[in-house]
Amino acid sequence: MYRKTTLDNGVRIITEAMPAVRSASLGIWADVGSAAEGREQRGISHLVEHMLFKGTPRRTARAIAEEMDGVGGNLNAFTDKEATCYYAKVIDHHVVLASDVLSDMFLNSLFDAAELEKEKNVVLEEIKMYDDSPDELIHDLFIQTMWSGANLGEPTIGFADTVSAVTREHLREHMRAHYAPNSVVVAAAGNVDHDGVVALFEKHFAHYKGSCELPVPEAPRTTPSHTFRHKDSEQAYLVLGTQGVSVRDDRRYVLSVMDTILGGGMSSRLFQEIREKRGLVYTVYSFQAAYRSAGLFAVYAGTSPKHVQECIDVIEEQFALLRDKPVAEHELRLAKEHIKGNLTLSLESTSARMIRLGRSEFSLGRQLTTEEIEEEVDAVTAEQIQELARELLAEKNLGLCVLGPVDEAQIQWNNRSAA
User: For residue 339, what are the contacts with CB-CB under 8 A and spacing of at least 6?
Assistant: First the structure.
């Protein structure tokens, strides 16, 4: 299913053929994200991503958009803490066009000074948008609280002062330092031919030379504490969590099963206890934030300010239950089937497969087959879950963030003394 070729210049090309579909997703990945930035450069990787859409010698920004819109394709990009990806999804017979547009953007962007000033304003508006989205902001606050002072703990989008200070030369220096053939992966999934994709990018990258120093994955010290931020809003938003495991840790399968049992669906313990039995929330779930050398695990809930304490109490009760009592066999089996079912459904998306190709290459250096993942999930035991819960969900490891019209002095929780 997977094929990989490394070009003479060091660019890796990975494909996964899905002959039963008519679409194809292509992504050009750079091994750099916000974790590679210093405080004064916060947000520069994300700004580079924006600027690659703003024109090349061959195409204006509008022409880039029109070429992809003209074939019904989707052109987009994302920057996270450890990677940046520029991708397109098209009908299979437009792969040649998509590869040309992506490569032109990636290699030949102009970084026009006037466009940069406009795009910095766009990013500043994006920052404001996130600040006005409490369900997004609370996650950033939690990561900052748990990884205080670490690059991984800071928001990928940056801050108003750091984004405003970026110049055209800063962008070019950033690309020279982090965008080179040895840090680039091309991933393609769908109705694609591996040799054909290799031939396309051999041509597009024929003059792409050089190398760069690859980032060292950050492994920040966990700093469990609490953060309360007042915000005039109808709801209060809370995240209560702990350290997790990295994407390279074999225990990630155990944590995935525990995550599913605790808050991974409508039958999960938290959904049933907090929403169904008590009617305290509309949304509650557990989640993982996993990176190459670090991870976090937490629970999110949005509720009325008067119900924050009760939600915290129930979450802590469920943490204690996982520590103190093995998961029942039927619940364990249900969680495993839930994970495997979601995995199978996700594989129907060429974009999801392309993203998995790129992330796995950077994180693991290889591709995991569906069968391998399912075998690892099936092998998880109740004893392993309890052992991991005792390690991660210990009260001394917990951090709490609350955003909304909540008086901190009125909130009690088991690790309050940690801050």
Answer: 256, 257, 260, 264, 377
Give the tokens for residue 216: 């060292």
DSSP assignment string, 60-125: BHHHHHHHHHTTT-EEEEEE-SS-EEEEEEEEGGGHHHHHHHHHHHHHH----HHHHHHHHHHHHH
Give tens-digit pLDDT for 296-346: 999 999 999 999 999 999 999 999 999 999 999 999 999 999 999 999 999
Exactly one of 16, 37, 49, 316 is catalytic; name it: 49
Supply the CATH number for residue 408's domain: 3.30.830.10
Can you give the residue range of the structural domain that contains 280?
226-418
| End residue of a domain, out of 170, 204, 238 | 204
Strand partners, 189: 16, 25
DSSP state of 9: T
136 given a catalytic annotation: no
| Rounded alpha-carbon distances, angstroms, from residue 201 to 205, 215, 377, 381 | 6, 24, 36, 45
Q: What is the CA radius of gyration of the chain?
A: 23
Determine the pLDDT at residue 416.
59
Mean pLDDT of the chain: 96
Q: What's the average model confidence in pLDDT over 243-247?
A: 97
Which residues are paired to 295 by β-bridges?
290
